[in-house]
């Protein structure tokens, strides 16, 4: 799986119709819908604002008045082909007075999305998990050196120190082994 690292837009003219593609990051349905609404407001006078989004656990698309499967489906297919998740794409169309036909619409929405993606840096998706554990005060410097490049979510001082970090799932075994070497035996995964 992949993620996008930046936003981008691209404009394409096909037989007097103007297609404007906007792609952004969305890790929840609410963020995706907010992005779509923002684009719709920006291009409120457009003929169509067709979209697709793919999240880790959900995806959707809309033809927004274009013939069925001529806009939303081509957009989502381009995103799927690149294996991108947590992405939202809106392609706005200003009708130019010349009908493109079903094939012409599919080609236009596909091309506009493909070209917009050329302006985006795509990076591998790395799944993160949260771990929690207790440590003695005398181990804190070693622990913080070991985990300094990861996000520390919580540090609570009691009889021991309770720590919580977000780490790449792929490194769980390596980090667990290193923590065990520091005599930290109980490491919990947080859902």
Which terms summarize this structure?
single chain, 191 residues, alpha+beta, Ribosomal Protein S5, domain 2, Alpha-Beta Plaits, 2 domains, five-stranded antiparallel beta sheet, 5 helices, 11 strands, 30% helix
Fold blueprint:
Elements: E1 2-4, E2 8-14, E3 17-25, H1 29-42, E4 48-54, E5 59-62, H2 72-81, E6 87-94, H3 101-117, E7 122-124, E8 128-135, H4 140-146, E9 151-157, E10 161-168, H5 172-181, E11 187-190
Antiparallel strand pairs: 1-7, 2-3, 3-6, 4-5, 4-6, 8-10, 8-11, 9-10
Helix pairs in contact: 2-3
Walk me through this protein's architecture.
With 191 residues, this protein is of the alpha+beta class. It folds into 2 domains: 2-124, 2-Layer Sandwich (Ribosomal Protein S5, domain 2); 128-190, 2-Layer Sandwich (Alpha-Beta Plaits). It has 5 helices and 11 strands, in the order βββαββαβαββαββαβ. It has helices at residues 29-42, 72-81, 101-117, 140-146, 172-181, and strands spanning 2-4, 8-14, 17-25, 48-54, 59-62, 87-94, 122-124, 128-135, 151-157, 161-168, 187-190. It has a 5-stranded antiparallel beta sheet with strand order 2-3-6-4-5, sandwiched between helices. A hairpin with a 2-residue loop joins β2 and β3. α2 (72-81) runs parallel beside α3. The chain is elongated, with a radius of gyration of 23 Å.
């Amino acid at each position: 799986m992949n993620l996008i690292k930046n936003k981008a837009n691209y404009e394409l003219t096909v037989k007097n119709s103007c297609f404007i593609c906007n792609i952004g990051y969305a890790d929840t349905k609410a963020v995706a819908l907010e992005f779509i609404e923002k684009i719709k407001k920006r291009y409120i006078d457009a003929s169509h604002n067709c979209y697709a989004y793919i999240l880790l656990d959900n995806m959707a698309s809309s033809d927004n008045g274009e013939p069925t499967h001529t806009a939303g489906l081509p957009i989502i297919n381009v995103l799927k082909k690149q294996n991108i998740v947590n992405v939202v794409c809106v392609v706005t169309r200003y009708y130019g007075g010349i009908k493109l036909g079903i094939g012409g619409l599919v080609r236009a929405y596909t091309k506009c999305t493909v070209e917009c993606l050329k302006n985006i840096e795509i990076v591998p998706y790395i799944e993160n998990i949260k771990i929690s554990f207790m440590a003695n005060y005398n181990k804190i410097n070693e622990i913080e050196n070991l985990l300094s490049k990861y996000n520390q979510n919580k540090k609570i001082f009691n009889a021991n120190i309770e720590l919580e970090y977000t780490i790449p799932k792929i490194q769980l075994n390596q980090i667990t082994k290193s923590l065990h070497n520091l005599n930290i035996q109980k490491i919990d995964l947080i859902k």
